[in-house]
Amino acid sequence: MTSVGIKTRDAIRRPRKHRSGGEWAILALLIVGGLIMLFPLLVILLNAFKSATDYATNGPLGFPREFSLKGIQTFWNATEFPWRIWTSVWTSGLVAAFAVVLSSLSAYALGIGRVKGRSWIVLLIMLANMMPQEALLYPLYMMFKSIGLYDSDWAIVIIFTVLQSAFGTYLLSSVYGTFPKAILEAATIDGASRWQIFHKVVLPVSRPTLSVLLVFFFVWTWNEYMIPNAFLISSRTQTVPIALSTLSGQNMMDATTTAGASLISIVPTLIFFLIFQKTLARGITVGSVK
């Protein structure tokens, strides 16, 4: 490397920042908070690869004396795990995609289209979003029973598409309400229709926000338990969280099997999060500096 390159690198090197006592205290609190949040995952990792004998001998916090996959294999075979994974990916993916599309369209009408009574509509959406899911169980059960979608994946897709899009509409309508009018007026003067403005102007600008919603909708739907447990009664349609809950009703399951099941159940969501991590960070950053 030449001396010019070294000088340039030294010139752009950021000066070392000396942290104050308060900053060190905040950093220490964040590290402690992070360790507390990671502790359950650490316990799962310690016990997922233990044998039942190893667990009984060394306890839940001891390191594995021998590497064993028996717990994971037991859960994998007992619950037909690949099919449960596919069901969860299928329902969560469809809900995330449909909810983002529905949210963007309804928010465009409310935030930019200035629908009459917009404030009341947004208020009703917010109130509906705050309604506990327990209150929805019986009406939804009667409705899907009557139309023949009870114990069907599509019942879960429809229910959570509506629920997630209600939150997305509430959030996006506030974002679209502050959309620069000059850009919209310029597009109108250029002869763009409402659909062209939405498709070619609004969507590209709001793509980071929509990406964040897509990730959240997928993870939220993946972790849902109560409504899927009430509507998906056959093993053919059950999702991963329901498969986990079946461990409590089977005497053959032990702590190592539960830990192994918990570990492989969160792997798909971790992979999904890591794939979209940059998109998620970019979307949050864009929202914070807007």
Topology:
Elements: H1 3-12, H2 21-48, H3 52-58, H4 70-78, H5 81-112, H6 118-130, H7 134-146, H8 153-177, H9 181-189, H10 194-205, H11 207-223, H12 226-231, H13 240-245, H14 255-275, H15 277-289
Helix pairs in contact: 2-14, 4-14, 5-8, 5-11, 6-8, 8-11, 11-15, 14-15
What features would you describe in this structure?
This protein is mostly helical and 290 residues long. The chain is built from 15 helices and no strands. The chain has helices at residues 3-12, 21-48, 52-58, 70-78, 81-112, 118-130, 134-146, 153-177, 181-189, 194-205, 207-223, 226-231, 240-245, 255-275, 277-289. Helix 2 (21-48) packs across helix 14, helix 5 (81-112) packs parallel to helix 8 (153-177) and helix 11 packs across helix 15 (277-289). The radius of gyration is 25 Å and the shape is globular. The model has no long low-confidence stretch (mean pLDDT 81). It is a multi-pass membrane protein. Belongs to the binding-protein-dependent transport system permease family. The chain crosses the membrane at residues 24-49, 85-108, 120-142, 154-172, 201-222, 255-276. Pfam families: BPD_transp_1 (PF00528). Residues 85-276 form the ABC transmembrane type-1 domain.
